[in-house]
Amino acid sequence: MHPGRVPVMAGNWKMHKGIHDTGGFVRELAAQLKERGPIATQVIVAPVFTSLSVAQQAAWGSPIRVAAQNCHWEAAGAFTGEVAAAMLQEIGIGHVILGHSERRQHFGETDATVAGRTQAALAAGLVPIVCVGEVLAERQAGATEAVLARQLGGALGGLSAGQVAGLIIAYEPVWAIGTGQVATSAQAQAAHAFIRHWLDGRFGPGTAAATRILYGGSAKPDNVAELLDCPDVDGCLIGGASLREESFMAMVDAAEKRAGKNSG
What we know:
It is built from twelve helices and eight strands. It is an alpha/beta fold. It has one domain (9-263): Alpha-Beta Barrel (TIM Barrel), CATH 3.20.20. The chain has an eight-stranded parallel sheet. It is globular and about 45 Å long. The chain starts with 7 loop residues before the first strand and ends with a helix.
């Protein structure tokens, strides 16, 4: 974790927690963060669409930021089941997860649609959390870097260096999501270093140094410290471990400890 980049701990709740559970969780998390005083870590929770407003209300006055799990590339239209980026911004949402592997696997997401959603999010003033990552067969074939380069080029190709520096990239080894498998710290660092190298080549060293890259493959309290010790890992996009207050808070504390260590 680099001292020049603000660390991020983002909880992707996927299709869990209705309004009651969301409100209770966020209020408790806010209370625990208040006890700790000012923090260096950016804490984000991403509930389902129906719980966004409840999460916003419960997070009010705390350092918690609320993200959506998707947005559409158009501002309005006949797109049943979709939500426009400006509609999220209208209720105070500041971040949105885009291109998650589950969206790609189950709902036909492509590099082109991720690009459209990313551009729409930026136009609405949202911070995109753009997900990239390889499946097991691609890793076994030695194609990890080729897959990452293709996904990054597809999602970010039409953006300026300044736009890219302001968004967040999440590397998710798809073979490690929900499987209990976790990339080793060396594997995570290698992938993150490649992403940063790719950003340098496409957008320049300033953008590469500024862009935050999160690890998103079954991160847990017992492996988060090792991951955060990697110089190119700036935090985590957390799935199952973010659904329990104690485990999510433990991971935030780990990020705070590393942030203090780096600043000291």
